[in-house]
Design goal:
Order of helices and strands: HEHEEEEEHE
Number of strands: 7
Strand content: 15-25%
Radius of gyration: 33 Å
Structural class: alpha+beta
Largest sheet: 3 strands, mixed
Helix content: 25-40%
């Protein structure tokens, strides 16, 4: 049977090894890795928002960066085929060869006009609002076929695609 005094040197050795490991971890984490990660030349990301996708890819390539088309999304601010968003943003300091992700505008979304004939003015207004549209000028006419405040005609034909 071992006595308590025999375990003390072993526990001290384990404590010293643990302390050395902790110190090595912090040296690696705070000194070695930041220097390793930050080595290499950097460049500033140029602004390519508003450029045609092909022009944007060329500008990024000339700056030593790797442009990549991320997605296409509807955007009424930018014409179809132009860059609407870039990540990382312009002016960011990055390493050469870094990927710059580009979101390309698919243009403005067009909405089909719903059929309103036979609906009450209130229902027609609510239907238009669900589609992101608004009621235009209302002209009242007397009709024997439809009750009062019912849509008889619509100036934009049903199914026509218009801007929301």
């Amino acid at each position: 049977m071992k006595k308590l005094g025999e375990f003390v040197p072993a526990m001290k050795r384990v404590a010293v090894v643990c302390a050395i490991l902790v110190v090595l971890f912090f040296i690696l984490d705070d000194i070695v890795m930041p220097r390793y990660v930050q080595q290499g030349e950097t460049t500033k990301v140029p602004s390519v928002v508003g450029l045609n996708i092909d022009e944007a890819l060329q500008v990024l390539s000339d700056a030593g960066l790797n442009g990549k088309q991320a997605e296409v999304r509807a955007d009424k601010q930018f014409p179809v085929g132009t860059v609407a968003v870039q990540t990382p943003p312009a002016g960011s300091e990055v390493k050469f060869g870094r990927g710059v992700y580009l979101t390309v505008s698919g243009g403005e979304t067009l909405t089909p006009v719903p059929g309103l004939r036979g609906k009450s003015v209130r229902d027609a207004t609510l239907t238009l609002e669900r589609f992101g549209l608004t009621m235009g000028t209302i002209t009242y006419q007397v009709s024997t076929e439809y009750p009062e405040n019912t849509v008889i005609e619509q100036s934009v034909a049903e199914g026509t695609k218009v801007r929301a």
